[in-house]
Amino acid sequence: MRLPVLLSVVLMALNANAQDDGEIGRAPRYTIRTQFAGMQGLISGGMLWNLPDGRLRLGAMYGYDPGRYGGTDLHAAILRANGSWFPIHQPRIGKWSVSPIASLSAMLELGGITFLTLPDQYPAGFYSPQSIHGLLGLGIGAGRINSEGGWLLTAEAVSLDTYLWYGLSQRQVKFTQLWNLALGVEYYF
User: Fold this and answer.
1) Residue of 59, 159, 69 lying closest to 113 (CA atoms)
2) Is the pTM of this model over 0.85?
3) Which pLDDT value is given to residue 125?
């Protein structure tokens, strides 16, 4: 009598710890990201490397904005770190992965529109160099991802460092004027 009960308890314990291999494990290693708008060019794209649990992605991107509106083409090199509060496989709504996301980026303008060092005609210390900017993005991502790969659609509100500074230091700048919508697609493999 004791052996069947003991065997049943052991088998139930083993079954309770069993997990579906498709839902656990490591995140896909790489991500290709394309983005529309978001203050780093009309269109931008690049490759990111994923940490094993998928919470953080680090990489490089290139941004381009044609000179149709500003008169000169914008070319930008971007270092991006974006992440989620949750591992890549959580939380789920059915087969969809849904998560809030945040991103920090450093952008260097390469097209000659802005400057790294202040030109001589400007007073020293009055203007800051404009070629390098920080960007902050807050948003949400939804897609289908598992340990082998998948895709994610993102929507973020993005702001430049100088916009945030003006918003904090000047009352006439409204909080809603600081942000720009960025729509992205990420492919995991």
Assistant:
1) 69
2) no
3) 67
- Which neighbouring-strand residues pair with 64? 43, 75
CA 26, 185, 182: angle at the middle one, nearest 5? 125
Residue 134 CA to residue 108 CA, distance in Å, equals: 9
**What is the structure's pLDDT at 2?**
61
Angstrom distance (rounded) from CA 63 to CA 105: 12
Q: Is the dihedral of CA 158, 160, 164, 170 positive or negative?
A: negative
Residue spans of the chain under pLDDT 50: 7, 9-11, 13-24
In order of their start, the domains of the chain are 26-188 (2.40.160.20)
Region class of 71: left (phi > 0), else alpha (psi between -120 and 50), else beta: left
